[in-house]
Amino acid sequence: MLGVLRGIVMAAAFCIAFYFVMNFFGLGGLTVRGDMMVFILIGVGFFFMMKFTTIAAMRAMQKSWGLWAHPHLSPAIFVYAESLAVLYNWTIAISVIYLANGLIKGSFDLQQPII
Fold first, then answer.
1. Cα–Cα distances in Å, from 11 out to 14, 44, 60, 95, 103?
2. φ and ψ at 113, to 5 degrees?
3. Which of 1, 5, 23, 64 is deepest in the core (most CB within 10 A)?
C-alpha cells in the first residue's frame, strides 16, 4: 500500500510541477488540443513506469545470482515478478491520478448510474 501511495504522490507532484511550468511559459494551450493534465500524466506516468520497471528487473537479476544452480527455480521468474509488481503499482497510481483529474474538472458524466 505504501508503494502505491508513494507512486501516486510522486507522479502527482511531477504532473503538477510540469503543469505549472507549462502554464508559466505560456505553452499550456499551444501544443495540446485536449486536456493538458492528461497529456502530462501520460508522459510522466509512463516515463516513471519504464524507469522503475527497468530498475526492478536489474535488482531482481542481482538478487538471483545465487540461484543459477537450482534447476527448479529460474532467475527469470524473479525478473518477471519484480517487473509485474512495479507495473501493477504504477498502473494503479496513473489510474488514480487520472480519475482524480476527471473528478476535479468535472469531466465524468454518468448517463444512467442506476439501471
1. 5, 7, 24, 11, 17
2. -65, -30
3. 64
Secondary structure (3-state) at 19:
helix
User: pTM here?
Assistant: 0.75
| Cell digits of residue 34 | 485536449
Mean pLDDT by 10 residues, the chain (115 residues): 86 87 76 77 87 86 67 75 88 89 79 74
Distance of CA 87 to the CA centre of its chain: 8
Q: Check residue 36 and report its DSSP letter.
A: H
